[in-house]
Amino acid sequence: MTAFALTEGQQQFVAHVRAVAVDELRPVVDAGEEGHVNRELLKAMGTHGLLARLFPSASTGRPAAAMDLCLMREALATVSTEAETALALQGLGSYPFLLSGNDAVIDTWRPAVVSGDAVAAFALSEPDAGSDAAALQLEARPDGDGWLLHGEKMWISNAPEADIYVVFARTTPDARARGVTAFAVAGDAAGLGGEHLDLISPHPVGRLTFEGVRVGPADVLGEVDRGFTIAMRTLDLFRPSVGAFAIGMAQAALDTAIAYTKQRKAFGGVLSDQQAVSHKLADMATRIEASRLLVYSAAGAYDAGADPAEITRRSAMAKLDATETAQFVVDAAVQLVGARALQRGHPLEHLYREVRAPRIYEGASEIQRTIIGRSLTR
Ligand code: COS
């Protein structure tokens, strides 16, 4: 039995993604407006084949490759969190269409999201329905053969700038998860409005308002009243990759802390000679490696078509462990580097703000524990 390792092909892919990120994407990130959708960045990802790698083919039965998604997110995160986030949001917004859209929806949107010409977004959360997603209230009122959407979505990544949204709306009142339908809504639909939200770490995120947005039967993804499952299956794929993002950030923080403590003179030697420092670095590295393996095993289970309950449990474990690990590692790195790390513009200052949100979005750590706990006692 050998230790787990990426295949040679995967290692080459990671090196390729890093090189693309350094040479091609970072300059486009720098030219963009912080906290807003960077369309040139998405197009560059399309040109360099990263989006196509995420959605390899509609004919595989699985419209996405989880391991490739995780490797890309981890590699991009070590270079540019902005590039990483742009890839991830495009994936999250597009996946429900590719998973459940009819042929017309897929034919219309797939080429544009893979080339990076269309920006996609996933609209589930509401002001009063975050962790309890089945409590969502955005109303789909029957209107002829379709519906009119009324209500609000909150903390929606890529909103209000996206070109295409998957919107989860209530088609049957008081039915919780069994009364939710997923709709495709174009960004320029009449009655759709929104505004940007300002977070501690700049992020393209916003609020959406729906005042009688018309959707018809052709816009339904999957089946009426069965949309909640589409949201959950989407999160099953993306949660391990949130873990991969977190691990990429944690690795970047560890690398920074190692480089600094190896050369920083103190107490007649360098900082890393201090046992308190070297043991802290050891804990950081060990926890990163453990989390990384959980992420890869969750992604591997998804790609291998494991039992759905196992995919869900591994996905929750990977996200929970990796995002909590990343918080610990980034905080520890700040502590080791000291006051310099607090200065605006220092890579650790950026990571310290950036690492916080993944413990909340796509299911807070508490929700991941609920999912894991239920799977153990079901
Ligand atoms: N895959 C497929 N179907 C799933 C599923 C999954 N992973 N998880 C749940 N479902 C289905 C269930 O099978 C059930 O279907 P039936 O009614 O047909 O039996 C339905 O969805 C409801 O499931 P459940 O009863 O478990 O729903 P709960 O309201 O108790 O809780 C949690 C579900 C807490 C897991 C869910 O609300 C959740 O993930 N919350 C966090 C939401 C989130 O991540 N928000 C962030 C938005 S994106 S930034």
UniProtKB/TrEMBL annotation:
Indicate whether Oxidoreductase appears among the record's keywords: yes
Q: Which residues form the Acyl-CoA dehydrogenase/oxidase C-terminal domain?
A: 225-376
Task: Write down the superkingdom of origin.
Answer: Bacteria
The signal peptide, as residue positions, is: none
Q: Does the keyword Oxidoreductase apply?
A: yes
Q: Which UniProt keywords apply?
A: FAD, Flavoprotein, Oxidoreductase
Q: Which PROSITE patterns match?
A: ACYL_COA_DH_1
Which positions fall inside the Acyl-CoA oxidase/dehydrogenase middle domain? 121-211
Give GO MF terms, alphabetically: acyl-CoA dehydrogenase activity; flavin adenine dinucleotide binding
Acyl-CoA dehydrogenase/oxidase N-terminal domain mapped to chain residues? 7-117
Which cofactors is this protein said to need?
Answer: FAD
InterPro entries for the chain: Acyl-CoA_DH_CS, Acyl-CoA_Oxase/DH_mid-dom, Acyl-CoA_Oxase/DH_mid-dom_sf, AcylCo_DH-like_C, AcylCo_DH/oxidase_C, AcylCoA_DH/ox_N, AcylCoA_DH/ox_N_sf, AcylCoA_DH/oxidase_NM_dom_sf
Q: Which family does it belong to?
A: Belongs to the acyl-CoA dehydrogenase family.
Q: What is the designated name of this protein?
A: Acyl-CoA dehydrogenase
